[in-house]
Amino acid sequence: MAQSSDPVPAPTPTLWGLFSSFAIVSIFGFGGTLAWARRMAVDERKWMTAAEFNEVFALCQFLPGPNVMNFAVAFGARVLGVPGSIVAGLGLCGPSLILMILLGALYAHFGDLPQLQRFLGGVVCAAAGLTLGMLGRMAQPLFEGRQWVSITLMVAVLIAVGFFKLPLWWALGIFIPLGIAIGWKWPSS
Amino acid sequence: MRTDCGTLITLLLHFGFLSLAAVGGGNSAIPEIHRQAVEISGWMTERQFADLFAISQAAPGPNFLISTLIGYHVAGPIGAILATVGMCGPSSVLAYYVSGTWDKFKYARWRMAVQAGLIPVSVGLIGATGIIVAQAADHTVVAYALTAVTAVITYATRLNPIWLFLVGGALGLMGLI
Fold first, then answer.
1. A129–B150: do the CB atoms touch at under 8 Å?
2. Which of A55, A62, A100, B57 is the most exposed, fewest CB within 10 Å of its CB?
3. Rounded distance, CA B83 to CA B19, Å?
4. Which residues of chain A does B16 touch, with a Cβ-Cβ cutoff of 8 Å?
5. Is the predicted pLDDT of residue A188 greater than 60, yes or no?
6. Residues 75-94, chain B: which have Cβ within 8 Å of A?
């Protein structure tokens, strides 16, 4: 096939290329793996354009479950079908799974050491802050759009689940229909 | 450590359900993981849950790997694998099938309504996660201050969180928290 000068026809990855790329994303992806996946697929390997990434990203957010895993599966399927999905998913999970088992074993043996307890005690305060900072970032578009109905819903979920420990079944059963009704009435919100 | 079949099946089913219930991303499932692990099953103490959350956030890799750590804590390596398969499996199968038909309903009004409607719910669940972890972790004034400062820095800057974890860990080691 003649090579076009147009950069749009992206190079097709091999199965090994998919596996190793997602493995690298998973091993080096500190603080938000999806951003690393984007850099890998769009900027470095040029397997997809930024617009294509946004489209797949919208799908990953729409679907339940870990976003970055959804991205690996959807992207793998797009380029190489079922084997692509499986290989990308394994690449993303495999090395981290092994790392987590090692960390879990270390924690099981040394978790009661006073030094480690103090260290983790500090890390978890920062981790809580990180999560609350992410809350601020994610809520910001709602405030910028003055979507007061959505904001009320968000605060209700936060209080019901965070403070009153409402089971997720109940939270989803009550709040998702409300959310969809709001989304239907104001689709742009 | 209990590793009977019942516990393994509970792990697989619990995380399998969460895989499909985690609207907007894996972190939406953390309040329910906490409820199951600490309050319902008594798999671990509040403190151990907070520790595992800290490890999963500070370690490289996708954040949903807290399920792997919890699986390991409950039932060793087999538990770790089952929890991970549960957390990733059902949503991945769904992602595979939906990605093939995405183009057909990408611009459908119901699709936009559902997506817009899920945003406040998933953002609220992330907020609940932050509150639950802060309740488990913060017991001193310095701890609350560290959480607050980290939240502001995360919101206002693009600083790599690893530095925040290191500062938190160092303050902890010095016995300030």
1. yes
2. A55
3. 10
4. none
5. no
6. 77, 80-81, 84, 87-88, 90-92, 94
In a domain, B174, yes or no: no
Clarify whether residues A8 and A96 are in a common domain. Answer: yes
Q: Which domain holds residue A139?
A: 135-189
Distance CA B36, CA A61 (A): 25
In a domain, A126, yes or no: no
Predicted ipTM of the assembly:
0.92
Token digits for A61?
């957010």
C-alpha dihedral over B41, B42, B46, B51, to 10 degrees? Answer: -80
Q: Is residue A161 part of a domain?
A: yes
Q: What would the pLDDT profile of A27-78 be if each residue is shown by its tens digit?
A: 887 766 888 889 899 998 999 999 889 888 888 888 999 999 999 999 999 9
Domain-located, residue A118: no
Cβ within 8 Å of A, B 14-73: 18-27, 29, 31-32, 35, 39, 48, 50-65, 68-69, 72-73
Q: How many domains does chain A have?
A: 2
Is B80 domain-assigned?
yes
If you count them, how many residues does chain A have? 189
Please state the domain count of chain B. 1
Chain A residues close to B131, C-beta within 8 Å: 132, 158, 162-163
Please answer whether residues A11 and A47 qualify as being in contact, where contact means their C-beta atoms are separated by less than 8 angstroms. Answer: yes
Min distance B170 CA to chain A CA atoms (Å): 6
Assess whether A107 and A143 both reside in one domain. no
Tell if the CB–CB gap between B112 and A187 is shorter than 8 Å. Answer: yes
Q: Is B12 on the interface with A (CB under 8 A)?
A: no
- A163 and A75 assigned to the same domain: no
Give the Cα separation of A40 and A62 in Å (integer): 22
